[in-house]
Design goal:
Layout: E1 11-12, E2 15-16, H1 17-25, H2 27-56, H3 60-89, H4 99-121, H5 126-156
Antiparallel strand pairs: 1-2
Length: 169
């Protein structure tokens, strides 16, 4: 049973009092707060490099390296985020308060992984690989916006929707 199922009566905003305390005291909150802006910065640099390659035909190697680095950071933030959810909500992923963010994160991971698989098995044109990376990046932007919205809601102490207390697992 997820931790938040028993505390839904004391929920104020995204977190119950107990969840907020766990969120504020775990080192994983700090880890996420450090990794998220680093990943976003790497994303921006990589996006510029990918667009540069697509528009000029130059810089394929550095664009590829940037996508791989972005993907490694994505895996890292996903793993540490799952640990954070376990500590705060009592389940590794799909906690009710972050259910849709996690669902979209799975799509982001799938697209980035598809890029890596396509890169390493070969047989794909560089432009096709870069377009796949752009698709992954587009979904990543949606996912980042979801998390920024939740961060803002948490700062304001507001619930994200009426489904926050629904248990999904």
């Amino acid at each position: 049973m997820p931790i938040n199922q028993s505390n839904s009566d004391s929920r104020s905003g995204l977190y119950s009092a107990e969840e907020r305390k766990r969120r504020d005291t775990t080192k994983w909150t700090t880890v996420q707060a450090i990794l998220a802006p680093i990943q976003f910065l790497v994303f921006l640099i990589s996006l510029i490099l990918v667009v540069r390659y697509l528009t000029t035909g130059e810089g394929y190697g550095i664009a590829t390296i940037s996508i791989v680095v972005k993907t490694v950071l994505l895996y890292t933030i996903m793993i540490t985020g799952a640990i954070w959810e376990k500590v705060v909500f009592g389940q590794y992923l799909l906690a009710p308060a972050f259910f849709w963010e996690d669902v979209v994160s799975f799509l982001v991971i799938a697209l980035h992984t598809a890029y890596l698989v396509a890169l390493f098995i070969g047989g794909f044109e560089p432009t096709a690989l870069m377009m796949l990376a752009l698709a992954a990046y587009a979904v990543y932007v949606v996912n980042a916006a979801q998390f920024i919205w939740k961060f803002r809601l948490a700062r304001l102490g507001q619930p994200s929707s009426s489904t926050d207390d629904v248990v999904t697992a």
